[in-house]
User: Fold histidine kinase from Gimesia panareensis.
Amino acid sequence: MFYTRRKRAPKAQENSKMKYRKSKVLIVDDSEVVRHILTKALAPEGYTIYSAIDGEDGWRQINELQPDIVLLDVEMPTLNGFDVLHKIRDQFKAEEMAVIMVTTQNDGKGIARAFEEGAFDYIPKPATESEIKARVRNAIRAIHLLREQKHLRQQAEAANQSKSAFLANMSHEIRTPMTAILGYTEILELEARTHKMPELFLDSLDTIRRNSGHLMELINDILDLSKIEAGKLDVESITCSPQAIVEEVLELVQVRAEAKGLKLEAHYQFPLPAQINSDPTRIRQILINLIGNAIKFTEVGTIRLETELLQTPGEEPCLQFSVVDQGIGMTEAQMANLFRPFCQADSSTSRKYGGTGLGLTICKRLASMLGGDISVTSQLNQGSRFSATVRTGSLEGIELLDELRDTDVPATSTSDTTLSSPEEEHPLKGKHILLAEDGPDNQKLIAFILKKAGAKVSVAENGEEAYQAALMAMESGSLFDVILMDMQMPILDGYSATRKVREAGYEGPIISLTANAMEGDREKCLSVGCNDHITKPINRRNMVEMILEISRTPEPCLS
Assistant:
């Protein structure tokens, strides 16, 4: 005896049907006949069905039941269907409740109005049972898809927040010891040169400093990429000089080129705008990375930075910076991987030349944020040309240069405060500084730098000690010239300590010290009452300059 076995639906499909059948459907119609017809058609589908006799009753039940689907009659007394629809859309999102209008209007205007005002679909009067079932079924599927999409979006946002928290913690844990490593290396180098230590000693220190710098570049690249992916990396649009940017970049990379015996050249294709509206910091970041790669992959020859204005009718003008080298070059297959995160031309590139492959990814995304792009042409063993474009903004009224000008002023303004040698000049002489820092290595390092610059230093090992020291200074009528407040400390962290100090009426300057470098960390420090912010690892010169500048402000009078 032969028989056919009925094939069962996949488990996921069965679960999906069960989920849809549990949906709540509310029928709002002042006609008992219509309510009966709709209920009869939908009852076999397994939905939980409710009914309301008019618009007011419908709106009351909508708030009580919060159904998945509302079948809403257009023409009803006291509160018509469109009035109820307005209320629903004011209070509930599309994924929370779908509305299907039930209407006798077949001229198209009423149907168009329903869609415009937020209805998902409509059912004409009269309608067959199959049509009623199909339209409701489609609405329920759509609303569940919207809910799943929202759930997935929330999961993605949660995962992104977890990633940001991980990166922030990673950054903090690495930056904190890097402060001591880089700081003491710099101090030892200064002492070694002063006492004319053997070359091996200096070379060893240089190796430590150089590799520490590479590690910091990696951390910064990862954080930049994370910010870009999260949409939290801001770019400015300020007036800046392309010529000044190019000259500053070449000055910054000159030492690296000379160390390999390479020649750097700048070539300008005139006319060029004297000024553009863009983000000079991000342009410098792109160019330094591109030229750094050119230096890395070039053994002999010249590296040329070309600058040219591109103008296409009907489009906003762009400035193009091209870095041309005579290095190892690439094949077409190698170029295909260039702009993918953590990828280089091939695996041997990383082994021979080092690097993570993040730099070009970041540069391409930065160029895109500046309204441009990065492209590359290359020939194996001949060299490469990387071209980065950025939007210039409107050039109306902007002078176009036919030759270079003297650029005494840098591309962006900087502080007038400069120090030739803080250790020799004792710029902080007479300043009394409270250092709140729990790490013993960083305590010693920062205190050493400050004392070397002439300051008197008091140390607090946690936020509570810093708070008590600030209160004692207030009571004695002699505030600290500056409080350096580490933000991650035991007992009472720097955020809480700063907030308590400000609430107690302390008005002296407070500078936050933090190894956190994610988006919003600076703003968080300022929001609790800090005057400024220093990121670890600490730059000795910048820290001394900031303290000198902020302590020049007249000390507030205590009442």
